[in-house]
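Box 3.1 — From sequence to structure: Shell fibrous prismatic perlucin-like protein 1
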Amino acid sequence: MNGRCKQRGGYLVQFDDNAEQKHVANLLFSVPGNGPFFTGLTDEESEGRFYTNNDKKPAKYRKFRWFQPDNWWNEACIEIWLSGLNEEEDPFRTSQAYPAHFLCNLVEI
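Predicted structure (token representation):
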């Protein structure tokens, strides 16, 4: 997943706090649909221990929906939906009915 952002010179976004997540969500309201928008958090290597895809450091901030994370279908990717501004675990599946959006943090040079 992070490869799509690396191709553009960045990495999947990592939120440091609630204010940063809300700021990004406000920018996303111009995007058609309400998600999912994949972030740079995962627990792929160790269930329940969330870290960043970019540098493998422990997650600084997480705001899950009340029933998440649930590891249903062996989920490991973290996404947000604009309808709730909360994070949710997902197995990273995409289709035309369920398109994926990637939140990339692009590095300025």
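Summary of the box: The beta strands are 10-12, 37-42, 51-52, 77-81, 86-90, 101-102, 104-106.
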